[in-house]
Design brief:
32% helix; 490 residues; Aminopeptidase; 7-stranded mixed sheet; alpha+beta; 3 domains
Length: 490
């Protein structure tokens, strides 16, 4: 578990500043990340009140969005043994996350609702395809470029200081020709201010900027970068549409001039703009890099996703609790009183008592002494149990019930989770650890779980762990128990 002294506080964070650009570059070295959300210029500069904290192994970013504080997925230094789970556990309990990839979601934890929005997905292209424009599907693009080259005398050159007055005028004319509504005008003004910074960064050699002229007149501008992970990002592209085919030419030429050494080209999201979406899809992205938000389940009803309604490409779902927030220990007979009390107490809180048939004291002593029982703990509190009963006589009986007499069977038993920790993945994590123990110490064998036939949550959880139902029959001890016997080979 993460010691309390390693949990970050507000005092550990400082505002986004110029130093962050170099820190990001350092932490991105050696990575293959193709997203833009760790790009200082393409993404982070958009947040006027962001903060960061850095340790030897991990960089944390956060910013206020929609009235709540959200963290980026922690950026772990390449080669570090620190896991995403452990990095997340260094943040305050209940932290919200944005800009998360599926890899981060899968690697971390729950008690969270996960949701995404199609508008947030970034378009990632194979640079070689984007530059070659080969094959039938790019026929229209090649035609647009050919028309542009045939109709106009153009030149595309690297940005110079002398280009700035023309660029400023070009921006003014572009803005004046637009009709904005709502917050779009404010967003456009913010973009113009950021573009000025990008132009200065390009003149300083930190970004790449090319200017397109037709008959000497400014016709387009494109700005991008190559990240420390080797991905090309085009964050800005603007052209005068009075020139037929200008956008197709500008996009292709900018990539061909600057990014042929990059495996992937990220052209960022479409912001939900229909025309932009159509344009970006027409270049046939290699994949869409979906971005997720993780928000604590107990505050989901207050979150942005709930308020704006049915705009999500995936239904919000709950996922498990991070293993790093609890500790798994092997139990012994010295723990008998604690375990028996836990099992009896939690059974009493079950709506259907048939869903858990507790051990007799003798059986529990046997499992704790001769079997292998494990517990999940939060501090000194036991929150879940799971065991492998190594009683060979009982195992032989289970094999017979399942129609596999003579094979080596062990009961997979004692699965119980504290009532306030159910539905958060604690049990499935603990069960996987116990299965790993059986695989290492008892293999080859079959684990057999015995579950009340209508206990759907337990049946589904076991099936997710790889168990398959073998037979359903009434328990010979009576009491209304009808058990399904599920098997998993290890």
């Amino acid at each position: 578990m993460i010691p309390p002294e390693n949990i970050l506080t507000d005092a550990d964070f400082r505002p986004f500043d110029g130093d962050l650009r170099l820190i990001l570059a350092d932490f991105l070295k050696g990575k293959k990340y193709v997203g833009s959300d760790y790009s200082y210029h393409a993404f982070i500069q958009w947040f006027s009140a962001g903060e960061y904290a850095v340790t030897d192994e991990v960089l944390f970013l956060r910013a206020d969005m929609d009235g709540a504080l959200y963290y980026w997925a922690p950026l772990i230094r390449e080669g570090s043994a620190l896991t995403p789970e452990e990095a997340v556990a260094m943040l305050p309990q209940g932290a919200c996350f944005a800009f998360c990839t599926e890899d981060f979601v899968n690697a971390t934890y729950g008690g969270y609702y996960i949701y995404t929005h199609r508008d947030w997905a970034e378009y990632v292209y194979k640079t070689s395809d984007f530059v070659a424009l080969a094959g039938k599907r790019y026929h229209a693009k090649r035609n647009h470029i050919a028309k542009f080259l045939k109709k106009y005398a153009s030149a595309m050159e690297r940005l110079k200081e002398s280009d700035i007055p023309d660029i400023e005028e070009f921006e003014r004319e572009w803005l004046a020709a637009r009709e904005f509504d709502g917050g779009a005008e404010e967003s456009a003004a913010r973009e113009s201010a950021i573009v000025k910074g990008w132009i200065r960064a390009a003149l300083d050699g930190d970004l790449i900027c090319d200017v397109l002229r037709v008959d000497g007149k400014m016709a387009g501008i494109a700005i991008g970068e190559i990240t420390p992970s080797g991905t090309a990002i085009e964050m800005y592209e603007k052209a005068d549409t009075s020139y037929e085919g200008v956008y197709s030419y500008l996009a292709h030429e900018f990539a061909a001039r600057n990014f042929t050494g990059c495996g992937y080209l990220n052209r960022q999201e479409d912001m939900g703009l229909e025309g932009l979406r159509k344009s970006k899809l027409s270049y046939y992205p290699e994949f869409l890099l979906e971005k997720y938000v993780l928000k604590p389940a107990d505050s989901f009803s207050d979150c942005y996703a709930e308020r704006i309604g049915k705009l999500f490409s995936r239904k919000p779902e709950r996922v498990g609790t991070p293993k790093v927030r609890f500790e798994v220990r092997e139990l012994s007979d010295a723990d008998f009183d604690m375990v028996y009390s836990f099992l009896e107490g939690e059974r009493e809180l079950l709506e259907n008592k048939l869903f858990f048939l507790n051990y007799t004291p003798e059986e529990l002593h046997g499992v704790l002494t001769h079997g292998a029982m494990f517990g999940a703990f939060e501090g000194d509190r036991l929150i879940a149990t799971c065991a492998v009963d190594r009683d060979e006589a009982y195992g032989a009986k289970l094999a017979e019930i399942c129609g596999r007499s003579g094979e080596k069977f062990y009961e997979f038993s004692g699965i119980m989770t504290a009532h306030d920790r159910r539905g958060k993945g604690v049990s499935s994590t603990l069960c996987r650890d116990v299965m790993a123990y059986a695989r290492e110490h008892l293999s080859p064998c079959t684990l057999c779980a015995v579950v009340q036939y209508d206990n759907e949550p337990s049946l589904n959880n076991l099936k997710a762990l790889g168990f398959a139902a073998a037979v359903t029959k009434e328990w010979e001890g009576g009491g209304g128990y009808i058990f399904t016997y599920l098997n998993a080979s290890v």
